[in-house]
Amino acid sequence: MEGFVLCITGASGSVYGYRALQELAKSCRVDVIVSEAGRLVMEEELGKGPEDLKREFPQAVFHDERDLTAPVSSGSVLSAYRAVLVMPCSMSTLASVATGVNSNLIHRVCEVALKERIRTVLLVREMPYSRVHIENMLRVTEAGALVVPASPAFYHRPKSLEDMVNFVVGRVFDLIGVPHALYNRWKGGGRG
Length: 192
Ligand SMILES: Cc1cc2nc3c(=O)[nH]c(=O)nc-3n(C[C@H](O)[C@H](O)[C@H](O)COP(=O)(O)O)c2cc1C
Description:
Elements: E1 3-8, H1 14-24, E2 29-34, H2 36-46, H3 50-56, E3 61-64, H4 75-78, E4 83-89, H5 91-99, H6 105-115, E5 119-124, H7 131-142, E6 146-149, H8 161-176
Parallel strand pairs: 1-2, 1-4, 2-3, 4-5, 5-6
Helix pairs in contact: 1-8, 5-7
The protein binds flavin mononucleotide (FMN).
Flavin mononucleotide binds at residues 9-12, 35, 37-38, 40-41, 44, 90-93, 125-126.
Protein name: Flavin prenyltransferase UbiX
EC number: 2.5.1.129
Catalytic activity: dimethylallyl phosphate + FMNH2 = prenylated FMNH2 + phosphate
């Protein structure tokens, strides 16, 4: 069974992580780590927190962000996983990944993923970006991560918030090779 680590941090857009979990948990092993700020933002934005996710997705494996002894903190375990997703990724977590400073399990998992050459996707969200943010994005990109802006497109003519979320999650799935039907791919100009 394919394995993924899904990290939800305190940037706006916890719905992206939630939607990814809904899809991945159908057929894959998913290890979930929600940062403390991620919990606060999720409660604000979705009206639910990690305890609700545990009830909703009993098949997923949840880790406390403070648990640096979790199996996924080790390269020998993480190397069997397909990808590490940070959805959404705060500028604070981005900075930790860029500098290799581990204050929680999310930072450690990203560090291990980069050294083990495991697909690492950081779905960043902030507006506007400072020079520090941009430099950190360059650093993690040079280290092998994929920096993906949480920016929905409009060419597929979204009709709802769900369509916009599905587009972003679908593009992340494209990058990690997960088949999906979350959005209609561009078929060229003209709609006839
Ligand atoms: C409602 C709310 C929305 C936030 N949105 C963002 C955001 O979009 N991007 C960001 O980088 N930080 C955002 N923050 C700040 C982060 O939560 C904060 O920097 C936190 O320390 C991140 O910690 P973490 O990376 O461990 O989750 C937001 C905070 C709150 C309370």
